[in-house]
Amino acid sequence: MSAATRLRRLDEEREIIVLERSSEVSFANCGLPYHVSGVIADREALSLQSPERLAARFRIDARVRHEAVAIDRAAKTVTVRRLDDGATAEIGYDELVLSPGAAPRRLANAAADAPVRTLRTLDDLDRILTDLDDVPPAGSVVVVGGGFIGIEMADNLHRRGLDVALVQRGTHLLAELDEEMASPIADHLLGLGVDVRLGGAVAAVGVDHVLLDDGGRLPAALVIAAIGVTPEASLAADAGLELGASGGIAVDAFHRTSDPSIFAIGDAAEKREAIDGSGTLATLAGLANRHGRAVADAIAGGATPARPALGTSIVDAAGLTAASVGWSERVARRRGREVRVIHTHPFSHASYYPGAVPLSMKLVVDAHDDRILGAQVVGTDGVDKRIDVIATAMSVGLAASALADLELAYAPQYGSAKDPINMLGYVARNLASGEDRVIQWHELDRELAAGAVLVDVRAEAQLAEGRIPGAQWIPVESLRERHAEFTGRRIVVQCRVGQGAHTAARLLSELGHDVVNLDGGYLTWRDGRRARALAELPLAA
Amino acid sequence: MSAATRLRRLDEEREIIVLERSSEVSFANCGLPYHVSGVIADREALSLQSPERLAARFRIDARVRHEAVAIDRAAKTVTVRRLDDGATAEIGYDELVLSPGAAPRRLANAAADAPVRTLRTLDDLDRILTDLDDVPPAGSVVVVGGGFIGIEMADNLHRRGLDVALVQRGTHLLAELDEEMASPIADHLLGLGVDVRLGGAVAAVGVDHVLLDDGGRLPAALVIAAIGVTPEASLAADAGLELGASGGIAVDAFHRTSDPSIFAIGDAAEKREAIDGSGTLATLAGLANRHGRAVADAIAGGATPARPALGTSIVDAAGLTAASVGWSERVARRRGREVRVIHTHPFSHASYYPGAVPLSMKLVVDAHDDRILGAQVVGTDGVDKRIDVIATAMSVGLAASALADLELAYAPQYGSAKDPINMLGYVARNLASGEDRVIQWHELDRELAAGAVLVDVRAEAQLAEGRIPGAQWIPVESLRERHAEFTGRRIVVQCRVGQGAHTAARLLSELGHDVVNLDGGYLTWRDGRRARALAELPLAA
């Protein structure tokens, strides 16, 4: 619809026909899960456009329940099936825009009569709501898949009062995040009473249960499969259009396929990834909307090339927000990058003003050129702001150290005089210059095994939160007196979040010691340990 | 304190002495107004550091109630007066960092016994609280000055239950904003019962009242003067250091004054402005903190030059948030720039998800090179995020049109698939390409006087909000039938916020008409008209 309405604004004369297989020409797909709980009470709020309005306002001929079933590129025609009566017809085109989206993956091992549903369209939502009418209050449902849709569905089914299990094949929820960043989300859902099962592959789905391959048996009056999507590329492939390695329709920077009269956009089209230019699906609403608009410009003759995709994303996990942009540490390492990793735990705004809440932040930086490769933020208030600022910085190639110099708005209700974003920049700068040296939470056991001493420099009042086994407690203020105890040994310093330990590490370094800071402090170590425990994995990598 | 603690982290050996005239070595000055109302209930929360802690943690010798009264640059000494007993002494220095801040301006025409207070330090706060003990419940106080501090004090005195008048000499509150952006703030305060007086110069202050030069008489058991600050540059000037045109101490990009052994930072030092490099005071906490850290780097030998100041700022005006960065339209025009101006009124997040609230946004763009010169955002939720994204974009010189391509995090709780920031970019791009042509709210009367016809293209249900005199109502959907009525006339199209009118303008332009869109639609015109009414000025510029 972005393409069609934009094209009309650019050209009053052109004939514009929209073919849509479902019964809705434009709907709020990101809002669908929230109608399950009633957070979005009015189903009509999810329906954004109608063929009547498109005709009246934009002179667009939008035909719902019409499926494009074949393309004849030589004749420049599309074969269209009218779903209500099965009749087919040919429609000619000068330019054809493919925007068929992506189809939910199906669970491989479900019985034919198993109550498995996927969620993509308003029609799907209506079916799920009908099914839920037959589920008793507090009945059991299983959501398979711990990504955005899986978490949102688990949240909203739980809000509806149902007994919800969330099964995730991977070691943590939200594959976009690294494990230690994701573990608070699993903990939060567990705390609400959602039965989160990590590393849980589905062995079978029966009429009233889900069997896991570890032998677990989850009762299930309804199963929601939210295990990802595949681009709807078959129409394009059948017409001989090239596909990319991702399985999406291959396009150039102007969204043109291998046939110059055919364009492809949205979840069906392959995008370029911002960091290394590789092909990616990046099935995100923002990109789909932008490319829809851009393809109209391309057709009308005034296009600018598409920028590669950073993949900025965010999800509300039952009140806890998780956001990410670019690469995770895991992806960066898998792709062979040497990285610097930064964890911080700042407050959302000045701690002296009421309502400040903790954030958990992670920055992944290319060790060779200080480029920001990715970021993750988890918390409640202020998560979206910080990920958007980092996404903006990444889109213009700002170095990690340069985050220190961003002039962000400060009053105590909104941030800090040194905003959490600036602090990431300071840490990045200290790491780039070698002023600070750090180890990661999963490297601690190796350091200790190699003979390093772990010094916990927190204030006494902070110790109650928990202690890392083997740590010796010496507050920063006592280090000047006691540092000689460690002469000749490598020292790992550790505080609650990494900041006091930075002061301690500087002091010990100035006093001639070999010292490293445990990045992110006790909190990151705790989150990492918890992630490994949830996934039933050992702490050391 | 940023400078002192950073320097200690860089150098364990150096002797570091801090001289502080007040009794607090480091306090949350941006939080002071909120203790007046009890929003920040605990006074101790405002005190961030103590000499004892600085000594124990950083081996810093911090001396409160010690005033530096003279500098002997040749001898490299500072004369220090101990305020408790008046004793003076000389302290030698290798490097001297001046960070004396800025002093509140005094009301010129107050009687000697008038109860006028200013707010800068915790000591000032304590005096105001003592004074307030003598003000009866619901007694009258007058705040003079409609900037950040004035608005925050008016808000918090009002929350305390007092009868508050807010007197602003200028035509609108918050000089950083343009008048039409600021008028909702005055309206909001008026709605809460604060007696906002715009264009109100103080003629005299007596023991129990304030007289305005329009003859108004405001009862006042206490008067808060918040009419700006002047840099505390006299110590530097007396020592023969150069001052800048702004009155601040002149420094280079490494915060070095005209004496290479003396540095100056904070509100007393002049900064470079980001847009045209001119000298500015930019008395903002973020810059002060950053420069404090940077001066330590400079002294220790590892500095990077200071970036020029954008002046990003934000204020909570009794629940309504106003933020700005860079230049206002007024400043840009005064400095001779030809600008494109964009007003939008988006929702804070997807309107189909509960809790979406309106934002009012303004972007000021250089007409020659599409550079962003400034932005203003007013609303409740999501204001800080949008100003921070624009500030980040400005800091790297991103073109206004490029805002369209930023990949911002979208889920319906946080934003829109086309975020308000992206929409600003689309409008900027349409203006840059000439696809869209606009006039501003204050240009409408001139257009109509010159014979243009004003066409209101809103949906019928939107008309109840108000109508612009002289507008003819034709909804977008009827324009294709009726456009011939305007053949040969210039057309101004207008909707609620500018977006439907963009569709109408494109349509009419495609049909061969001379058409311009009223930027920001009815809402911006209404805010502009209201601003002029509040200031008792005519609507036409």
Automatic annotation (TrEMBL), chains A, B:
Which GO molecular function annotations are given, in alphabetical order? Answer: oxidoreductase activity
Task: Tell me the SMART domains matching this sequence.
Answer: RHOD
What are the boundaries of the signal sequence? Answer: none
Keyword Methyltransferase assigned to the entry: answer is: no
Domain Rhodanese intervals: 448-534
Query: Pfam families under this entry?
Result: Pyr_redox_2, Pyr_redox_dim, Rhodanese
Keywords from the named record: FAD, Flavoprotein, Oxidoreductase, Redox-active center
Cofactors, names only: FAD
Family the entry assigns: Belongs to the class-III pyridine nucleotide-disulfide oxidoreductase family.
Q: Which PANTHER family match?
A: NAD(P)H SULFUR OXIDOREDUCTASE (COA-DEPENDENT) (PTHR43429:SF1), PYRIDINE NUCLEOTIDE-DISULFIDE OXIDOREDUCTASE DOMAIN-CONTAINING (PTHR43429)
Stated name of the protein: CoA-disulfide reductase
Organism this protein belongs to = Agromyces fucosus
Q: Lineage from the top down?
A: Bacteria, Bacillati, Actinomycetota, Actinomycetes, Micrococcales
